[in-house]
């Protein structure tokens, strides 16, 4: 429509279209800010730190929410019983675990764990936390480096007897945002030639994801040196330091995950848990 002065006039229909476009744009911005705009890394670190530095203790009985979520699969109790924890300290420069048995702050797996170091003991149906070998070592490792713990690796999913590793949250200098870094030391009694990797994820208390893969095929697209599990895995002590970027498209909220590895014969060799707030 053209006015008497020669200018194009806005019709009601065009006003309506512009209003709809503006409303949709506002809705998208609102959804992004509300659900997908993560706080800066230092804020995320502080948020997760406030949930409790000792994630292993949370699973072992101090956090009913975490425990109730992760104890879903009772059948995983019949797994293997490797009883090795971390062997030493961590070198940030080359990302390797260092042998450090002489460090007074590190408790050997064969030593008795002091009750004060391991945390309060539980009785009855709960697992006795002081009996979890390797936990004091990983506690000292986290404390010495002032790391924020968001996960743990045990030898079993139910009533574990040994802590094999830990998961921390770090700022991701390469891709922005944050990433997790997993450390674990796993001692195998025989060569690992195949098995399954299983994972369950909950988002704000609701089931989000549940899947499994053949462990020797799940990272075929990666170079062998970049894989989490490069088969065959030789028997003896196997150490891992693995970074994982947290995608920025994940909505804000609390993510609880459980992942476990079984051999071809169904024997459980490791079980990990994480509790991450975005």
Tell me what the structure shows:
The chain has 278 residues and is an alpha+beta fold. The chain has a domain at 39-61 and 128-277: Sandwich (Immunoglobulin-like), CATH 2.60.40. It contains 6 helices and 10 strands, in the order ααααββααββββββββ. It has helices spanning 12-36, 41-50, 55-62, 64-70, 115-118, 135-145; strands spanning 88-91, 96-99, 148-154, 163-171, 178-188, 195-203, 206-214, 236-245, 254-263, 268-277. The strands form 2 sheets. The chain has an 8-stranded antiparallel sheet with strand order 7-6-9-10-3-4-5-8. The protein has a two-stranded antiparallel sheet with strand order 1-2. A hairpin with a 6-residue loop joins β4 (163-171) and β5 (178-188). The protein is elongated and about 80 Å long. The N and C termini lie far apart (51 Å). Residues 29-36, 62-67 and 72-130 have low confidence and may be disordered.
Any key phrases for this structure?
8-stranded antiparallel β-sheet, 10 strands, Immunoglobulin-like, alpha+beta, 278 residues
Q: State the CATH architecture of the domain at 39-61 and 128-277.
A: Sandwich
Shape assignment: elongated
Low-confidence spans: pLDDT under 50, at least 5 residues? Answer: 29-36, 62-67, 72-130
By DSSP (H or I, 4+ residues per run), the number of helices equals 6
Largest sheet: 8 strands, antiparallel
Task: Please provide the count of β strands.
Answer: 10
> How do the strands line up in the largest sheet?
7-6-9-10-3-4-5-8
Beta-strand residue fraction:
25-35%
Q: How many angstroms separate the termini?
A: 51 Å
Task: Report the C-alpha radius of gyration, rounded.
Answer: 24 Å
Output the CATH class name of the domain at 39-61 and 128-277: Mainly Beta
CATH topology of the domain at 39-61 and 128-277: Immunoglobulin-like
Structural category: alpha+beta
Task: Estimate the helix proportion, in percent.
Answer: 10-25%
One letter per element, helices H and strands E, the order comes to: HHHHEEHHEEEEEEEE
The average pLDDT value, as a whole number, equals: 72
């Amino acid at each position: 429509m053209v006015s008497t002065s020669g200018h194009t006039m806005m019709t009601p229909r065009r006003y309506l279209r512009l209003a709809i476009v503006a409303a949709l744009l506002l809705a998208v911005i609102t959804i992004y800010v509300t659900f997908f705009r993560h706080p800066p890394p230092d804020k995320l670190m502080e948020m997760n730190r406030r949930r409790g530095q000792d994630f292993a203790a949370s699973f072992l009985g101090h956090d009913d929410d975490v425990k109730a979520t992760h104890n879903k699969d009772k059948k995983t109790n019949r797994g293997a019983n490797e009883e090795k924890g971390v062997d030493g300290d961590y070198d940030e420069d080359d990302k390797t675990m260092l042998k450090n048995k002489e460090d007074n702050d590190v408790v050997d797996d064969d030593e008795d764990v002091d009750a004060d170091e391991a945390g309060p003991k539980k009785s009855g149906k709960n697992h006795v936390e002081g009996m979890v070998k390797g936990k004091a070592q990983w506690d000292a490792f986290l404390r010495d480096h002032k790391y924020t713990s968001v996960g743990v690796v045990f030898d079993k999913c139910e009533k574990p007897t040994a802590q094999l590793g830990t998961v921390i949250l770090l700022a991701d200098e390469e891709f922005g945002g944050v990433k997790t870094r997993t450390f674990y030391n796993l001692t195998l009694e025989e060569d690992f030639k195949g098995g399954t990797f299983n994972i369950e994820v909950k988002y704000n208390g609701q089931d989000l994801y549940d899947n499994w893969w053949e462990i020797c095929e799940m990272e075929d697209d990666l170079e062998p040196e970049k894989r989490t599990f490069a088969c065959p895995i030789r028997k003896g002590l196997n150490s891992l330091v693995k970074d994982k970027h947290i995608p920025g498209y994940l909505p804000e909220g609390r993510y609880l995950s459980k992942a476990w590895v079984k051999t071809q014969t169904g024997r459980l060799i490791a079980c990990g848990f994480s509790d991450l707030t975005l």
